[in-house]
Amino acid sequence: MRGFKVCKKYDADEVELPKRSTTHSAGYDFRAIEDLIIPSIWGGVFSNVKAFLSGSEEFSEIKPHKVHTGIKAYYPKDEVLYLFNRSSGPLKKGLIMANSVGVIDPDYYENEENDGELIFCFYNFFPRDTEIKKGEKIGQAIFQKILLADEDEGIKQDRKGGFGSTGQ
After folding, report:
1. Is the distance from CB of 78 to CB of 146 less than 8 angstroms?
2. What DSSP string describes the chain?
3. How much is the CA Rg of the chain, to the nearest whole Å?
4. What global pTM score does this model have?
5. Which of 27, 32, 37, 51 gives a 20 to 30 Å CA spacing to 145?
6. β-pair partners for 4
7. For each of the chain's 168 residues, which pLDDT tens digit applies?
8. How many C-beta atoms surround the C-beta of residue 28 within 10 A?
9. SS in 3 state form for 94-129?
10. Alpha-carbon distances, residue 108 vs 41, 95, 114, 154, 161 (angstroms)
11. How far is CA 55 from CA 39, 46, 90, in A?
12. What is the rounded CA–CA span in Å between residue 62 and residue 23?
């Protein structure tokens, strides 16, 4: 009815499926699929303070960094999956999720663009770069029911893409 699978482009032996850490954990812990460095946003800002303060186009390129999980989630059409940062993420690593909470619609699963891979997007607000190791916990996910308003007539449009595609 609901669960997790490894995305097609990854080797199932290389990816650990999410699981809860304690008996009463609400969230399923996700891990990074690879080693990576998330650079401090301040390096780009301080390299040219004048351009930053003037709103230069150069700084429109400061974007969050995607941390891949290699995992997709399946669940009923009347549920949603929320992605959250780890509570220790900001304190220990300086990592803030770019969208605060990821809202994963049920039709994201196995989409044609990225197979429904769940991806965490972070900004690093520490003054130094932050290292993420393969297999390190990076976030958590919680399943929840979708509640609709009385006036909701439903939408008759199918998903066409993956990450961030519903606003296009």
Report:
1. yes
2. --EEEE-TTS-GGG-PPPB-SSTT--SEEEE-SS-EEE-BHHHHHHHTHHHHHTT-GGGGG--PEEEE--EEEE--TTEEEEEEE-TTIIIII-EEETTSSEEE-GGGTT-TTTTT--EEEEEE-SSS-EEE-TT-EEEEEEEEE----TT----------STT-TT-
3. 18
4. 0.84
5. 32
6. 73
7. 999 999 999 999 999 999 999 999 999 999 999 999 999 988 767 766 667 677 776 665 678 999 999 999 999 999 999 999 999 999 999 999 999 999 999 999 999 999 999 999 999 999 999 999 999 999 999 999 999 899 887 776 664 655 555 555
8. 20
9. CEEECCCCEEECHHHCCCCCCCCCCEEEEEECCCCC
10. 30, 25, 9, 17, 8
11. 21, 14, 26
12. 40
Residue showing tokens 């303060």:
53
Record the tokens describing residue 142, joined without a space. 């919680």
Q: How many residues does the chain have?
A: 168
